[in-house]
Write a structure and sequence with these properties.
The chain is an alpha/beta fold. It contains seven helices and five strands.
């Protein structure tokens, strides 16, 4: 696992998706990034159909068939939010390359993925310390089994270590978003 942030290889994006396994900090980082960019933040957990939530609550990993409608609903909401505000930030596991490609295709424009890169041990420690409405620790292995680590040479991705502070991650990501300077009003 490389600890150095990678640079996006594609076109500038108005939609930013913070991704990674459960307990990697997607919602926390995504919300902070949204605040920094003065952009709407959409948490992917809120777009799961109830059947998905119940399945995860029961400790059953989701299948691809479970994920497609969820990814489509989240992407449509991100696209609409970016259309209204010029930029939108989402949090979504986006574990497989096919999911990331699907999100980009459905968005109809470049999407920047921010991969929160962490070891199983670090993530397991985090997961043990938190309480999640429906994501039991028993699903951690299935998350890592499903994960296809994004390839910065082939995907529009910035990889950041989960062990960095939220503030450092936000600085790293916003530093790579020169095309969105108008949204960075703190400068």
């Amino acid at each position: 696992m490389s600890m150095a942030p990678s640079r996006p290889q594609s076109d500038p994006a108005r939609i930013v998706v913070v991704m990674g396994v459960s307990s990697s900090g997607k919602s926390t980082v995504g919300a902070a990034l949204g605040r920094a960019l003065h952009a709407p933040f959409l948490d992917g957990d809120k777009y799961h159909p109830e059947a998905n939530v119940e399945k995860m609550r029961a400790g059953t990993p989701l299948t691809d068939a479970d994920r497609w409608p969820w990814l489509e609903a989240l992407t449509a909401a991100l696209k609409e939010a970016a259309g209204k505000k010029g930029v939108a930030v989402g949090a979504c596991s986006a574990l497989k390359r096919a999911y990331r490609d699907f999100i980009t295709e459905k968005a109809g424009e470049p999407v920047l993925f921010v991969y929160l890169d962490g070891s199983r041990a670090v993530i397991a420690e985090r997961m043990a310390k938190r309480s999640h409405e429906y994501m039991p620790t028993s699903l951690l292995d299935s998350q890592f089994a499903t994960l296809e680590v994004p390839d910065p040479a082939a995907e529009n991705v910035i990889s950041v270590p989960v062990t960095d502070s939220v503030e450092k991650i936000v600085r790293t990501v916003t530093g790579a978003l020169d095309h969105l300077k108008t949204f960075r009003r703190w400068q």
